[in-house]
Amino acid sequence: MAGTDATTALPPLPGHVPLVAQIRSDMVESVHYGSYIVLAPDGSTLMSAGDPLALYYPRSSLKPLQAVAMVRAGLVLAPELLALAAASHSGATRHLDGAQEILALHSIDPVFLANQPDLPYGTAEREGWLRAGGAPTAFAQNCSGKHAAMLATCTLNGWPLRGYLDPEHPLQQRVDAVVEELTGEPITHASTDGCGTPVHAISLAGMARAYSAIISAPAGTAEAAVADAMRAFPENVAGEGRDVTALMRAVPGLLAKDGFEGIQAVALPDGRALVLKIADGGDRARMPATVDLLGRLGVDSAQLARVETAPVLGGGLSVGALVALPTPAGPSGS
Q1: Which of 79, 120, 158, 313 is most open to solvent, judged by the fewest CB atoms within 10 Å of its CB?
Q2: Is 10 helix (H, G, I), strand (E, B) or coil?
Q3: Number of domains the chain is built from
Q4: At residue 143, does pLDDT exceed 60?
Q5: Burial class (CB in 10 A: 0-12, 13-18, 19+), 201
Q6: Inside any domain, residue 231
Q7: Is residue 199 part of a domain?
C-alpha cells in the first residue's frame, strides 16, 4: 500500500501483545509486540498469544515450502546445495559458489537470474566484499540459491527461464499448490518479496502446520529431503554468526528458518512447530522470543544458551538485556 488518505481505508491491525522488552539499567526502555502459535504434532494448539490466525507475509520463512515444490517438480541436488535453495545466506564464498554450481549443473546462463542485485547480507561478508571493491550482484544477494534452484527446476521441466517469477508461470503455480497443501489454507492475498519472488499471506497457524508437515514427513519424500538438507547444512541456510544456523547446531534435529519483518519458524523433531511474528518487523526481538518458547517446550536450557541474542550495550559494555515477557501458556487466543 503506497499510503493512506481520507479515501483510503487502513487494513485491520493485528491484535498483537507484548512479547519482548529491552531492559537498560533496570528500566524498560522498549517493548516489542507480536504474536505466536505453537502446534502439537496432531495440529492442536499448545500455546498461542496475540493474533496467530491473522494473515502475515512469511517472507523468507516460505523458502522451505518453495524448495519442497521444486523437489516435487523433479529438482535433485546434493544436500548442501538443496539447503542453499531454502536459504537466506550471508554471501560467503561457499554460498556464492554453491549458487553458481546449481546453474552450472544445468548449463544455465547466470543472465537469467531475476533476483535483485545486492551486497552480501552477512555483516562480515559484506564488509569484506566492499573492501575488495565489490558491487551489488545477483549472486551476492541472499536469495541467489533459491533463484538458481528455480531456474534449474524450470530447465528440468522445459518451462521458460524468462519470467520464472511471474505468478502465472508454471513454476509459481506449482509453488502455490504446495503452499496451499502444506499450510492447509487457500491463498487469498499475495505480493512480491524483496528478491522479486511471489510471497503469499499465510497465518502463523498455517505456517506452523507446514513446518510440522515438513519435519514429520517420511523418508523419500520431498519434504524429508528439504528438512534433512537444511539440518545437515545449517551454515548454508544462513551462515556463520547467524542465529538460525546457531539454533540448528545447538538443538539436534531442529529445523528453523527466519524471514524479514520479524518472522521465525521452528519445528522440533517430534513434529511440534512454532511460528512467531514481531509486530514492528525488527529483528532483535525474534530470537529472545523463540528461545523462551523453546524453553517452555522443554528444550534443554544448556543447548539454548548457545544461541546468542542481540546485546544491550552502553559504552561498549553490557548494561541490560532483551527479556521475553510472560504470555499465556495455554491455547487461549488461538
Answers
A1: 158
A2: coil
A3: 1
A4: yes
A5: middle
A6: yes
A7: yes
- Angular region, 214: left φ>0, alpha ψ -120 to 50, beta rest: alpha
Q: How far apart are CA 90 and CA 93, in angstroms?
A: 9
Instruction: Please state the rounded mean pLDDT for residues 171-199.
Output: 97
Q: What is the pLDDT of residues 266-315, one digit of tens each?
A: 999 999 999 999 999 999 999 999 999 999 999 999 999 999 888 999 99
255/228 Cα distance (integer angstroms): 9
Q: For residue 187, what are the domain limits?
A: 17-324
Look up the pTM and report it: 0.94
pLDDT score at 3 = 53
Does residue 329 fall inside a structural domain? no
Q: What is the CATH number of the domain that holds 227?
A: 3.40.710
Give the tens place of pLDDT for each residue, 192-226. 999 999 999 999 999 999 999 999 999 999 999 99
Beta-sheet pairing, 17-24 with 317-324? antiparallel
What lies within 8 Å, CB to CB, of 21 at 6+ separation is 28, 29, 30, 31, 32, 322, 323, 325
* Torsion angle (degrees, nearest 10) of CA 284, 114, 83, 304: 0
Q: Could you tell me if residue 240 is inside a domain?
A: yes
Do 92 and 240 meet the contact criterion of CB atoms below 8 Å apart?
yes
